[in-house]
């Protein structure tokens, strides 16, 4: 792959629009000096090696390891392939797996059904350019600048059983982060708090990009505001919708920081991402097993990444 | 810019008042957790323990002093600087190189290249953890670079992994931005005999300043906020960046929410400062990836 830029450099500069190009100019453009070719190669190769080495090869290795019984310590030549055994073990004899899947799906549902539409709704309201909308916007996306780990701490001030505000105000004594029946909901509220601001921002940008003449045309036709939105504006924002969809799916799949700071993803807060981490850095390092879990994440995310790439590439080509 | 548009729209109809009311309530609800953290951090533990948190009084700055001292925030902030500054600069540099080639030349594998970088940014980090963890514990570094003598538990490792991960987003945004630059520029530069490097460094890069500024702002907050890699690829408590160190420190803070909130506010301050000073860049950066222009 390394010599590709070199080969292609001959054709690298597309001929300027054919009407204006002259033979002489074309020849001159084609002549990239040797140094230029080396520079181009390096400009692509160095970052490419970094991303391949630190992201793509490990991803491939994860898939391979998921078929082995490696314990992470023994020499590599003693690895045995065990086929799909890790996967069947994950599904059949690993108690946290089913709750983790449920929690991930719940997380996705909460972000998708509650936080995302709410963010979109707020974007539509703020797009009306009310007075003071800058204040509203700032307040709503302020949580986006905080790390999710930090958000876990901030919300503890509301959730803590003995010192938290919620229990103080309502006289309850629920351990919002500790009680395995409620903590997933508590954490999802905190996560949604951040997600709403992000989605609002994306849609606000999308709404600003919608051609105003479309709305005027709809208004002339006598369409109501909500009708205009759902029939005209929303479909026009298709690329944004897909980006929001992918962002939401990936965010809920990658969710990790919040549950990890609360209780390392145990006792009611199992998530696939936390299980993978526990299996690697925790007391028991079960590599094949952890890799099977990681591969599941990888496959799900690749489906949505493909959808995303297909969308943005199509946009790009236009 | 957009706040004071048509006069016609300013008249306060009952519907508009309702709208404002709704937005005010939502905004205040959204600010509340942050405001509560600040409020709690300014009150003494003894006072709130005696009178409950729903009370008034016990104002003090002591929590900040104590949190700063017991948590060694000075060192942890420095660690964050060691990691964030090189990582952001390197990410922008490498990503702009790739983006330049993608935008400047049209060879067949352009789209593939763009896909390889963009997709890498969207993979779940945990799915790469197992081989990376092993790799990091195998790769030796000379002692002057890392006292663990490994990539594992070193600033270098964290810088590299952050760069590798964040490159994709920046390549995507920058290549879109560069594609919109007029092609004539390069033709003129070629005629003047400018090398490819000059075309990149002296023609393209200055024109990309707005995009670079937006990305820099965004990447600084992202890498500063990064939690996962630092948690799993660092071992020595003293070397943790400030975001991940909070978790280590929780044990000390556990029974004292006033201290927890002071620590949280301290950790949040750099990102909040960036946010309020460079708000326009930050917001533009977030939406750069989503919509062109």
Topology:
The complex is a heterodimer of chains A (318) and B (293).
Chain A: H1 4-9, H2 23-30, H3 34-65, H4 85-93, H5 97-126, H6 133-141, H7 148-159, H8 165-170, H9 183-208, H10 212-220, H11 225-236, H12 238-254, H13 257-263, H14 272-281, H15 287-317
Helix pairs in contact in A: 3-15, 4-15, 5-9, 5-12, 7-9, 7-13, 9-12, 10-11, 12-15, 14-15
Chain B: H1 14-41, H2 45-51, H3 62-71, H4 73-104, H5 110-122, H6 129-138, H7 155-179, H8 184-191, H9 196-207, H10 209-225, H11 228-233, H12 242-253, H13 257-277, H14 279-288
Helix pairs in contact in B: 1-13, 3-13, 4-7, 4-10, 5-7, 7-10, 10-13, 10-14, 12-13
Describe the structure.
With 318 residues, chain A is mainly alpha-helical. Chain A is 70% helix and 0% strand. Chain A has 15 helices and no strands. Chain A has helices at 4-9, 23-30, 34-65, 85-93, 97-126, 133-141, 148-159, 165-170, 183-208, 212-220, 225-236, 238-254, 257-263, 272-281, 287-317. In chain A, helix 4 packs across helix 15 (287-317). Chain A starts with a helix and ends with a helix. Mean pLDDT of chain A is 84; it is low at 1-29. Chain B is mainly alpha-helical and 293 residues long. Chain B is built from 14 helices and no strands. Chain B has helices spanning 14-41, 45-51, 62-71, 73-104, 110-122, 129-138, 155-179, 184-191, 196-207, 209-225, 228-233, 242-253, 257-277, 279-288. In chain B, helix 5 packs across helix 7, helix 10 packs antiparallel against helix 13 and helix 12 packs antiparallel against helix 13 (257-277). Chain B is globular, with a radius of gyration of 24 Å. Chain B starts with 13 loop residues before the first helix and ends in a 5-residue tail after the last helix. The model of chain B is unreliable at 1-7 (pLDDT under 50). Classes of the chains: A mainly alpha (318), B mainly alpha (293). At the A-B interface, helix 1, helix 3, helix 5, helix 6 and helix 7 of A face helix 1, helix 4, helix 5, helix 6 and helix 7 of B. Chain B: It comes from Micromonospora vinacea. Chain B: InterPro entries: MetI-like (IPR000515), MetI-like_sf (IPR035906). Chain B: It is found in: Cell membrane. Chain B: Keywords: Cell membrane, Membrane, Sugar transport, Transmembrane, Transmembrane helix, Transport. Chain B: The chain crosses the membrane at residues 18-39, 81-102, 109-135, 155-174, 207-224, 259-278. Chain A: It comes from Micromonospora vinacea.
